[in-house]
Amino acid sequence: MQYDLIVIGGGPGGYVAAIRASQLGMKTALVEKRELGGTCLNRGCVPTKTLMHTANMYREAGESETLGLHFGERSYDFAQIHERKNTVTAQLRDGIAQLLKANQVDVYQAAGQIVDAHTVQAGENTLTAQYILIAAGSVPAVPPISGADLPGVVTSDAMLEAQGVDCDNLLIIGGGVIGVEMASIYASLGKQVTIVEAAERILPPLDREISQNLSMILKKRGVEIYTSALVSAISQTENGLACHFTDKKGEQTKEADVVLMSVGRRPCTAGLFAEDFAVDLTERGFIAVDDKFATSVPNIYAVGDVIGRIQLAHAAEAQGMAAVEYMSGMNEATVNYDLVPSCVYTTPEIASVGITADEAKKAGREVLTGKYVMNGNAKTLIEQQDRGFIKVVFDKETQSLIGAQLMCARATDLISELVTAVSLGLTREQLARTMRPHPTFCEGITEAVGAAAGHSIHTAPSRK
Q1: CATH no. for residue 244?
Q2: What is the dihedral of CA 350, 355, 356, 357, to 10 degrees?
């Protein structure tokens, strides 16, 4: 079983890298112990967004009378909701299998263990190759909290696999991306939801105004949010579970049917290496790589969640392609992390790229900023969207776009234009001269760009 490349992991970083390697003439094997598509397709991005779409439709149906639409009493079938999610993931999973077959990638359905710099044991098969690429992904992290192993305490895997977890009262430990997306889904289905976050605000890495605005919208939908809250224990009660934590008001206890642990992810490296072989790891246990994604062992590379840089599917894809192109001698592996778009699929959606104005100021960089509140956007009013905005950040000296933060309908689609603009160094004037159709959400970009120069057409000038 001699190959040019063996890829361990069939998620976005792995299967995309395998296909690209085959296209470059490398005889390639892919080893995956679970389903093709990895966490993103089976226990992450795709299931979450499928459930989000259904939950939003249910919520919007309850608000339809203002449109003159009357549906009668609403109801839903939780099992059927998850069955559709399973159908979507299965269809996409089959598509990946067909792509791998069409590109002549050999797939081994087994756990892969690296024996040495050129050998992988895949079940009963011993595979050898010039290169090995680790794309083993990550699994949900469970902190050492007393009661974390009680029945009813779950991770995102349980929430998104099979028939999910049905409950009337959900408490979420962690207000990051996974936490707020699950809160949005369950709140839209009419469930009681509580978020307990250790940081001073939810979505702490993102723009402060985005966090504040989302908090306001979630609270409006009935979600309770506790920040600066440290969880001490989870206990069993007669009615379910209780989460004990301390916040600014002192000791608190909140009861729930189910507690979701949503505090981050850890690298999936258990059993990955033979006992007498290993590569260097970081202090947090991720695989250490250089800017070409090479590990401490020559000919072994790693990409995606397992290296712990940016745990996003599209980042893993870019890393995987860059790594195999470097192996093939095309060029040096490069992934510009300033150009990785970050997306949160709440309602409204959230997306960002580059740096914020606050980050620029901390770095001593002078900027021009423009902001447009989407309340005046025609498409936003037509579709009854919640309050949102678009912010753009320009370098004051060069006038080039260096960052953008969006919180509005279709933000995760609109961000692509701004990623392109940042990557090409487009100026405020170039973006201002771009004609965008009406009525669309993307008109908000025109207004935000105009606001940076003080001549936004549909925003009243500020008076100090």
Answers
A1: 3.50.50.60
A2: -160
180 to 47, 278, 453: CA distances (angstroms): 15, 36, 34
- Residue 236's domain spans which residues? 153-263
Tally of CB atoms within 10 A around 264: 15
Query: Collapsing DSSP states into helix, strand and coil, what is residue 332?
Result: coil
69 & 167 share domain:
no
Task: Tell me which H or E stretch contains 379.
Answer: helix 378-382
Active-site amino acid positions: 438
Enter the DSSP assignment of 196: E
Per-residue pLDDT of the chain (464 residues; tens, 9 = 90+): 799 999 999 999 999 999 999 999 999 999 999 999 999 999 999 999 999 999 999 999 999 999 999 988 999 999 999 999 999 999 999 999 999 999 999 999 999 999 999 999 999 999 999 999 999 999 999 999 999 999 999 999 999 999 999 999 999 999 999 999 999 999 999 999 999 999 999 999 999 999 999 999 999 999 999 999 999 999 999 989 999 999 999 999 999 999 999 999 999 999 999 999 999 999 999 999 999 999 999 999 999 999 998 999 999 999 999 999 999 988 776 789 989 999 999 999 999 999 999 999 999 999 999 999 999 999 999 999 988 999 999 999 999 999 999 999 999 999 999 999 999 999 999 999 999 999 999 999 999 999 998 765 566 544 33
Q: Diameter of the chain by CA atoms?
A: 74
What total number of domains does the chain contain?
A: 3
Q: Where does a domain end: 276, 310, 337?
A: 337
In 139-283, which residue ranges form alpha helices assigned H by DSSP?
156-160, 177-188, 208-220
In a domain, 377, yes or no: yes
Whether 421 and 285 share a structural domain: no
- CATH at 379: 3.30.390.30
Q: DSSP letter at 354?
A: E
Tokens at residue 90, please? 């299965």
Alpha-carbon distance of 373 to 390, in angstroms, equals: 7
Dihedral pair phi/psi, residue 166, rounded to 5°: -90, 130
Q: What is the pTM of this model?
A: 0.93
